[in-house]
Design goal:
Blueprint (H helix, E strand, L loop, with lengths): L13 H15 L2 H6 L16 H16 L13 H19 L1
Length: about 100
């Protein structure tokens, strides 16, 4: 998480504050508690009904946290298989494109 911006009271970005708080949260919880926060299916994907920007930011930063703390073995518990992930993105794209037209 060292690559995350440091929060300072003069910062105007809500994202900076969120990332500061998230970094603090990640450092005080156990790995199991952190992983349970992700609404993952058996395929290690987030169902589209549960997908939000907050979940995506948490997921990304949890992965960065595990990597920065050299806990790469835990990445297997939060990363889907490549084929499942590609199918997921494809389904999401086509669903989204139906609403844009």
């Amino acid at each position: 998480m060292d690559s995350l911006p440091k929060y300072s009271p003069s910062s105007r970005s809500g994202l900076d504050m969120y990332l500061f708080l998230l970094r603090s949260y990640l450092s005080i919880k156990s790995v199991d508690e952190l992983i349970k926060e992700l609404p993952l299916s058996e395929e290690l994907l987030v169902e589209k009904e549960k997908l939000s920007s907050q979940v995506a930011v948490y997921w990304k930063n949890l992965a960065k946290y595990f990597h920065s703390k050299q806990k790469d073995e835990y990445l297997e518990r939060i990363f889907p298989e490549l084929t499942a992930c590609a199918d997921y993105v494809k389904r999401y794209y086509f669903t989204l494109s139906m609403y844009i037209r």
